[in-house]
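Case study.
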Amino acid sequence: MGSDRAAEDLELFLAERGELLLRTAVLLAGSRDAGEDLLQAALERLLRRWRTIEGDPEGYLRRILYHLAADNWRQQRAWRTRLRLLQPGAGAVVPDSTAEVDLRDSLVRLLRQLPPRQRAVIVARYWEQLSEAESAQVLRCSVGTVKSATSRGLRRLRELSESSGPAELAAQGSARGKS
Amino acid sequence: MTTELEQRLRADMEHATRDVRVPPGLALKAYRHYHKRTMTTRAVAAAGTAAVLTAGALSVAEVTGPFGKSANGTQLRTTAFVIARVEHALSAPDMANMVAYTRTVYPAGVTLQPVPGGVKGSGGSAAGSPGTGGYELLWAYHRATKLSAFTATGQRVFDERITALTGSLATTVVTYASHTWWTAQSARPAGAGSTSAGCLPGGQIRLTGSASAWPDFIRSQLACGAYTVAGKQVLGGVDAVKITGGSGQITLWVNPVTYLPMRLEQGGLTQINFQWLAPTRANLAMLNMPVPASFQHVAPPS
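After joint prediction, the assembly is written out as follows.
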């Protein structure tokens, strides 16, 4: 396959399925910019196998997205920890930098605060509405891990949403309903 | 059990990503990065200085996928058996709640124009071949459809959403070249929902805005008889069963496990690829059609 052909094929594939995949990537990464970066990184990995893929590449790309999301998060976490140690007032709450995500989408902002696996499981289960078995297959883990990560993730989200103020969230919810 | 938190989470996810669009050139950017990295890796490996790095990159690429494996060793099935299975699969109660996703590829020269209540196609010649013209993507669920038309090079031409109301069709169209949009309400044509008038050839394909349009059409054609199993063919890694009929005008490929249609070719020119999806929030979101803020509202074509 020529190089131009591969780029063209990829362009067509993205025109068709890109929107759905990018939406998933944005949720996994926490912001639009990070979501685009994540999708681009996943596409680069997909290209490595492009010639050997015979079927629909979407499932393959989706799995890469989920795995990369966890990797990126780990790297960011390491850097964030180091930066926090270097800054005065270490241990202070890291300011929310999710301006790219609509502020009314409070739970999506809180989702960023979950560990990568829990976040990936939540996105798989509640955005893509995959079953526990399907989520386990995408994330390459056991069904038990999916169950426990879902349960812990939801519990943590509930705690976070309660601590961020139920009245505020309710107001945000009603604002969204009117928009 | 679905809790309030889970419902809100789903709604928030939908809302937070509703305006997300793939930026132009993302594929090319990814390809350039990939190409640059490949060239760098090759240069390093050739110099013999970083064999470990290369091995690392290769091990990262070692991801297993489901491709290249055929679904199963399908046995030869009799025509009657296969047709009965396809008809049964298409009329199963589950079908009514599935999201139909189709990708239709037209021969060269065919142009589509959105009109209230549907799309008007024109042009095209018998000299064309599938894949040389533009294509359309259709998402359909219950009584709503969203159709996106693209040029052969993948440039989005227009989006059209049609919702079937009682006795009428509500149409909204966004045209990207002219940065305009319009809405219209038109009378629902008689017989809407039933999709074909008669058997092909000689009959007429008339698809209306509902998710049951294609299943109804395929069932009606199979009911005409004269369809035969013409072997197997690998489609998307699946050993699809090929069925031909309609005096050679229609070729249909069905999944050997679910017996749901995977592809249909009409007259050897127009090719329709099907996917039957669960009505997840992610899939249903594909039926949304936000109008870009800067687009101008215009009157619908007459």
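Observations recorded in class. The CA atoms of residues 9 and 15 of chain A lie 10 Å apart. The first helix of chain A runs from residue 3 to 29. We will return to this complex in the next lecture.
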